[in-house]
Amino acid sequence: MSETPETQDERPFSRRSLLVGGGVAAATVVGGGLLAVWTSSSGSRTAPRAASGRTIKIGYGGGVCEAPLYAAHAQGIFARHGLNVEIVKTGADEIKDAVGAGKIDAAPGILFSWLKPIEQGVDAKLAAGLHEGCLRLIVPKDGSITSAAQLKGKTIGVAAIGDSAMSFFSLDLLDAGLHPSEDVEWRVFPGDQLGQVLASGEVQAVAASDPNALLPTLRGEGIELTNNRKGPNAQHYCCAVAVNGRLLREDPETARKLVTAWAEGSRWVGNNIQATARLEVDKKYVAADQATIETLLRTYAFDPSAKGLKGELGPSVEKFKGTGYLDKKTDVAKLAEKAYADLGLSF
Description:
Blueprint lengths: L17 E4 L2 E6 L25 E6 L6 H8 L2 H4 L3 E6 L5 H7 L4 E5 H9 L4 E8 L3 E6 L14 E4 L5 H12 L9 E4 L5 H7 L4 E5 L5 H4 L3 E6 L11 E6 H6 L1 H20 L1 H10 L7 H8 L8 H16 L10 H8 L8
Parallel strand pairs: 3-4, 8-9, 8-10
Antiparallel strand pairs: 1-2, 2-9, 5-12, 6-12, 7-10, 7-11
């Protein structure tokens, strides 16, 4: 089965203040311009037909934390549930539109990063939480920044506007008394260059998922200020399964099998950390060495749950609304209900 990226349809690049220089493309959003970059694409993309008897395409970005997907695929767990699954590498800033449009059927991702797209009509829902951990906020080693409050007026590097790390750490900024779209500047760089721009002083912090989040500290370029297993925003189910809406409506049984198998992949990872790290390296899913991946995986907790995610969605939407990224008129309960795919799963 193919593990190479699909060719993406070209679409207008609507990010505000595109900066290009030194071989690095950087999108900067400050003040009220942040909301625009979350607007979903519209057009005539072909929606998926019912899943029965066809290949299910699942997107991934190359993160260590996507281990449950890699394991479910490589260990034949999807196949044992009667599914023919192909995993497709997809850019972080494209994956939500791709799931919503049916170019791919599902993808893993932090729940907060899906709330705005779902609010705006992206045809996708979250079906189960997969694990804890994987996001880190890194600042320069021996620098003056020792708290989120000290990031006021600073530039934070991220891999994509509205990505998992930006979405989550905006909550920490909010708790520190900062407005995440007014008091800091978010700037986009390729994920593997975040450590470089931190070391050069081009940004004063980077927010990223593993392995890019940890590499600056391993190279002595930074220290971890916080992560998504700390503080009042610590998540039990940070990474979740997002499923295309039409698949859920037209073939819920296939969707149920998909999520069930994915959760089994998460449990397998929790019981096979070393083998998982080796799998991520051997299959070239992750651009890091086995020892680093194994270290990272041991900092996570793999206890997947559909019911647990449902319970966390309401409070998560309520808190996230405070960042200003959601519409002021958004009904918290309705968005939480809209975002959750109830497949009748008991775990």
